[in-house]
Amino acid sequence: MLRADKFHNISPRLRITEVCFRSVLRRSHEVSAGMLSPWGGIYRSIVESFVSMNLLLSKSDTIDSLTGHIGGQPLECTLKPLAGSPVPAWLRVLGDQHGSALDLLRDIGNRGVEPCFDAWRHLSQKRVRRRWIEPHRAFDGFRCLLLWSGIFMKVCFHCRLANRSDCRSTSEAGLSRSKGKEHKRRVEYSHNFNLVTMSATWQILIGNLGTVALVISIWAHLYHRLREYSDLQTRLMFGLVMGIGAIVSMILSVPVRPGAFLDLRFSLIAISAIFGGPASVLATGAIAIAYRLLQGGTGVFVGVVSMVIVATIGMGGYAVVRGRVIKLIDILALSITVGIALLVTIIAVSGRGDAATFRNVVLPAVLLNSLSIVIAALVLLQFRRIAFERDLLTAALTQMPDFHYVKNRESEFVIVNKNMATHNHFTSPAKMVGMTDFNLTSKRRAETLYFEEQELMHSGETQIDKVEFLQEGEDERWYSATKVPLRDRQGSVIGMAGVTRDITAERRVEQELRENRNMLSHAMAGMSDGFAMFDQKGTLVFCNIQYSNLFPLSGGLRVAGSNIKDILRKVVETNERRGLPTHSTDEWIDNAAAHLHRDKDEEIDLHDGRWLSLRTRLTADGMAIVVASDVTIMKQAEQSLRMVADQMKYLAETDGLTGTVNRRALDEAIATELAYSITNRTSLSVMMIDIDRFKLYNDTYGHLAGDQCLKTVSDCLRDVVRPDTDIVARFGGEEFVVLLPGSDEAVALEVARAFRNRLNALHLPHSASEFGHVTVSIGVSTRNSHAPEITASRFLKEADQALYSAKRNGRDQVAVSDGAAVAEKYAS
Description:
Layout: H1 4-8, H2 12-32, H3 38-59, H4 63-70, H5 101-111, H6 114-124, H7 135-138, H8 142-162, H9 164-177, H10 183-223, H11 231-251, E1 254-257, E2 260-262, H12 265-295, H13 300-321, H14 328-350, H15 355-399, E3 403-408, E4 413-416, H16 418-423, H17 443-459, E5 463-472, E6 475-487, E7 493-502, H18 504-523, E8 530-534, E9 540-543, H19 545-549, H20 564-574, H21 585-594, E10 600-605, E11 611-618, E12 624-630, H22 632-653, H23 663-680, E13 684-691, H24 694-701, H25 703-720, E14 727-732, E15 735-741, H26 745-762, E16 776-783, H27 792-808, E17 814-817, E18 822-823
Parallel strand pairs: 16-17
Antiparallel strand pairs: 1-2, 3-4, 3-7, 5-6, 6-7, 8-9, 8-12, 10-11, 11-12, 13-15, 13-16, 14-15, 17-18
Helix pairs in contact: 2-3, 2-8, 3-8, 3-10, 10-11, 10-15, 11-12, 12-13, 12-15, 13-14, 14-15, 20-21, 24-25, 25-26
């Protein structure tokens, strides 16, 4: 028996622990009477301890006044169902003399908990379970109470597993003996337990919510480290983490009745499904279901079914959001749906639908599971956005062709991109971190760079496009360097960022242009081209004889002193140039005169068939210099070359037999149209067509007839597609491909039906075919406007898979691919 005087002599922390133990022994009366199972009695006593301590502390100013509320109550009682249960091995450190768990609890009740602390101190010296060794140091107040309550719960849990049948018989016998005597006490207990359960359920499930948040946080921090793995591996790891979180949630569950528990595992399963897809939810579900089966109990079947239902709901959400960004409305819909499912399931599990059950059990479980889904989803979406931005910045930094770097105040490299590392002969940017220019270049240049950078960081001024010339071995290089000081939130300079561009090619081009300009100036005097100079008012100041001779009809006015408007009016009157407007000639003259003083190159077509090249350049003082050259021969040669090039291109891109686009041109076209579809979010469809039994057709009618059959099929295709946008190509042999830009699945199916109907109407004989005439099988693949990016090869492969699906199912039909697996849809 624990007496009040002994209760006063122990420390406040141990008093709190003995209050918990007193509640454990008090509840054992209900266990002995059969009113509660051992697990239910111990668990309810722990919940009652929490609430009782909160109520008592709120009324007590000191621990002594707290003792007055508790002291003097008898504690002699028995835990009959525990009498035959052995002490678990993990608690034998409290003493080897205990024959059963009941002896252990009685010994703790008689001696107090101080010897227990001594035993745990002894165990801590062996460095075992260090986080749980010294609870009086690791926790204070209610944390110590929580730890020892967990110990009592685990003892009784082991005893319950060993003596389940004895407990059941004892409970039934005790209930029959005390049916009338304990009725009033049962009613009072039920009322008190409802008060306790509501508070405890909220407390435990809120703690469970913290566990869910911890699991999501762990995954968010692991996510960046898993970027190198494949998508399937990442999803499986995500499912594994969510499954472990579900186990932890079930460990911290709230028992509704023996074998039935409430926790937040369903939120993790739903999150695993909508974010990870089938692979993830299979991993999570397998782990959670396996652990729930291991727990056992009367509610195991309903618990497993509930997890399957939530997983199914989550997969429904995954199917809805697949291929697009998950939005808040999707998360809210998933949360509400799971909440409704849990509402029905929990009421079914508890077996009661009264207000107390709804208030104490259903409401916290449903609300916190739904809230957990929303919180976890928002955190994951935020981390996804951060990961995307981080990947984007990393890609921009590493893939830019320039040399990017960041230095600290000591001019040590903190960050460099891959090009910077490669330029300095390092295999990885990380190997340059911590180095300075003294490790990379000569001492003299390193000192120069160091002092320049220190001066830049000291002054805070930005250096933009400073050109540097370096002799790198036998090679001469020019670099443009931009350096910017970096500041913290207080405005203090903490380092600098730099970008260096290799402008050697640009410098060499500028040098070549400069040399060419000088050569042109020297050759000006003896040039055969026409040369003229106009002042700012458009008056011809100077021209050579070649300039006047190039314009036979207006050459008389192309002399010094003439105005450009008078010259242009003469050109209009004589129709010296082709393509001049017949109306609004004054407007054209004014516009052409205004554009005289602009740098431009143009070619004009004269009435006699000659072509002139006019190059206009402005001088520093606003003069316009015009150089006119006869480029007739070059223009004619250019036109001839263009015609030849067009003809060669046509031959290179056209199938010689059918006149359709060939495979090479198709590859270019599909890459171009697919890029346009992705960029502009438009639909794109492709049809792959195969002539059924074509080899037998060749064997039966000969290759010449086979060639004619191919031409007929290609003609039918060209008749049903849009000539301006759609592309018909011979893919190889008897296969054709039709590219339909801007067409969705419905339009593609309509084109396919029209083509089949047109071909069937011709009724080309084919005795070797089961249909008696030439037929085709068609596979259709469509990329919708909001579908994810896809490669050209994958796009064609989907159509090819659909084609073979049509052939497998009897030929002369159309099959449609949904982009991931072939959905066998047929069009007649």
